Amino acid sequence: MTRRLMRRLAAAIDRVGRGRVTPDMVTLGGAALHVPIAVLIALGHLIPAAVLLAVTLPLDVLDGELARLQGRAGVRGMLLDATSDRLSEAVIYCGIAYWLDVTGHSAVWAVMACGAALSVSYIKAKGEAALATAGMDHDSMNRLFQVGVASLTNRKRVLVVGLLIGQVWPATVVVVLLSLLTVRQRWVAITRHLSRL
User: What are the transmembrane regions (predicted)?
Assistant: First the structure.
């Protein structure tokens, strides 16, 4: 979904909620949705799980747009968002691990997907710390960290498609491979930039 659409949705939510719907509520509500999604996956209800997971996609952008609109954007909100994203993703992979085991596939793939996905975020966090220490501004870091195909949104999209077509194991393998590729891409981008400083 486009940022412009999310800005409009944030404005509508702010207007209807008279400013009482906070970005933290959107972040935590989106995170809470991942528990029933994981349960649905574990129980083999893949289509409803896919629909709910698709619903969380715009929430990953909406909380930030609402924060900017309400003048609440800041480091605390970014930390809450990043933390809830990692926990939400780990919950999803628990449901996938159970489903894979029940269907005769190795749950190790879900563990690998979770680890690889968390590594994408970890290298971003460590890279930001290293580059901030080296004096790089936040906007430049954001552009640098657009590198890689396996953003959280794209990982979720892969899982949504896999759930919709009943191909959870292949989707999980794709998440592993794309996440590892993204870690490599970000490693190269960060180390290349650091070598220039």
Answer: 25-55, 158-183
